[in-house]
Specification:
2 domains, single chain, 4 strands
Length: about 350
C-alpha cells in the first residue's frame, strides 16, 4: 500500500489543486484581514505592496537579465511626477495616468539603457547611479516640478461616483496593482524572453552566438523593469497627495536593490518576502528606547550583512539560483563530483 507522500507524488493534480487552494486562501486573507486592522497596519501593508512592485520591476533588470541598476528610483520619480503634474495642472484622470506614467518610465528606461549596452560591472553601476541623481537634481531645480517643495494638492482618484479616500481603499488598490505586477513578471520569467535574459545573464557572448539579439533584450529589460516603477510612482503620488524629491533619493534605489538581493535574485516569492522584511523589521525595532532609535537602522544593516554571509542566495532563492550557489560552494573545494555537478549546472543554464 502506498504511503501518503507516495500517493501525492503519483497524483500531481492533487498538489496543483492544493497550491491553488493555498493561493486562494492567501488572497482572501490579504483582502479580508485588513478590514479588522487599524490605520497603521493598513498603511504598512500598502507600503509592502508598493515596494513589492518596485522589487519585482527591478528583479527583471537585476535578477533576470543580470544588469546592475543603482538609479531605479529615477523611474519611480518619473511616474510620480508625471501623475502629479498632469493631475494638478490639467486635471487628468488617475486611471489615465497609470498607463501614461508606465509608458514614459519605459521610454526613459530605453534612454538610460541605450548608452549602457557596452558597459558592465562598476561602469554600469556608475552610469545608472548618475541617471538617478540627475533625475533627482532636475526635480529639485525645475520649475514645473515645484522645485524642492514638490507638487502638493494631488486630487484623490475617483471611480465613477466613488472616491478613494481611506487607507483601506488605497491598500486594496495597491494590492490589485501588486497582483497584476506579480502575474506579468512571472509570465515574463517563464517566457522565451525570460530565457533569453537568463542566457545573457550567464554568458552574453554565448547568447549572442546562439542568435539572441542581446542589444534588444537588454533594452527590453530596462524598459519593462521601468514600467512597474512608473506604476508605483503614480500610485504613490495619489496616496500621499504630494510628491517631492526627498522620496526618490539614492537611498531609495539601494532599498529596492536590497529587497531583490535579500529575497533572492530571480525569485518572485523571494522579492515579495524581501519587501515584507525590509518594511516590517525596521518597524519592529521601534521598541528600542528613544536614545537608541538612531541605532535602529544600524541593527537592521548588521542583520542584512549576517544574512548575506550565511545565506548569500537569499531568503527564498529560485531553484536555479540555489543550484548555482550550491555548485559553486562545493566546487571551490575541488572535489571531482562537485566540479562535475558545477559543469552540468553551467551547461544546463
Amino acid at each position: 500500500m502506498l504511503s501518503w507522500p507516495q500517493r501525492v507524488r503519483r497524483a500531481p493534480w492533487l498538489t496543483r489543486r492544493a497550491s491553488r487552494l493555498a493561493v486562494g486562501l492567501l488572497l482572501a486573507a490579504l483582502v479580508l484581514v485588513p478590514f479588522g486592522l487599524n490605520t497603521y497596519y493598513v498603511t504598512l501593508l500598502t507600503d509592502i505592496c508598493v515596494y513589492a512592485m518596485l522589487g519585482l520591476g527591478l528583479n527583471i533588470v537585476v535578477g533576470y537579465a543580470g544588469l546592475l541598476d543603482l538609479g531605479y528610483a529615477a523611474f519611480f520619480a518619473i511616474g510620480a511626477y508625471v501623475a502629479a503634474y498632469l493631475m494638478t495642472t490639467y486635471n487628468w484622470s488617475f486611471w489615465l495616468m497609470l498607463p501614461l506614467g508606465a509608458a514614459l518610465a519605459a521610454i526613459f528606461g530605453i534612454i538610460i539603457g541605450a548608452p549602457t549596452l557596452r558597459l558592465r560591472s562598476d561602469y554600469l553601476a556608475i552610469v545608472t547611479l548618475g541617471f538617478g541623481e540627475i533625475t533627482r537634481i532636475s526635480a529639485t531645480n525645475l520649475t514645473f516640478t515645484g522645485g524642492p517643495n514638490g507638487i502638493p494638492g494631488i486630487p484623490e482618484p475617483t471611480l465613477g461616483s466613488f472616491t478613494l479616500q481611506t487607507p483601506l481603499h488605497y491598500y486594496l488598490l495597491a494590492l490589485a496593482l501588486a497582483i497584476i505586477t506579480l502575474f506579468c513578471v512571472s509570465r515574463l520569467g517563464n517566457s522565451r524572453i525570460g530565457r533569453a535574459w537568463a542566457y545573457i545573464r550567464e554568458d552574453e557572448l554565448a547568447a549572442q552566438a546562439m542568435g539572441i539579439n542581446t542589444t534588444r533584450m537588454k533594452l527590453l529589460a530596462y524598459a519593462l523593469g521601468a514600467v512597474w516603477a512608473g506604476l508605483a510612482g503614480c500610485f504613490l503620488a495619489v496616496q500621499l497627495t504630494a510628491v517631492d524629491p526627498t522620496s526618490f533619493t539614492f537611498n531609495t534605489s539601494v532599498e529596492i536593490l536590497i529587497i531583490v538581493v535579500l529575497g533572492g535574485l530571480g525569485s518572485i516569492p523571494g522579492v515579495i518576502l524581501g519587501a515584507a522584511v525590509v518594511e516590517v523589521v525596521p518597524e519592529l525595532l521601534r521598541f528600542l528606547p528613544a536614545d537608541l532609535q538612531p541605532l535602529r537602522l544600524l541593527v537592521f544593516a548588521l542583520a542584512l550583512i549576517l544574512l548575506m554571509i550565511f545565506r548569500p542566495e537569499g531568503l527564498w532563492p529560485s531553484r536555479q539560483r540555489k543550484r548555482e550557489m550550491r555548485a559553486y560552494d562545493v566546487g571551490v573545494v575541488g572535489e571531482p563530483e562537485a566540479l562535475a555537478e558545477a559543469e552540468l549546472v553551467q551547461k544546463g543554464s
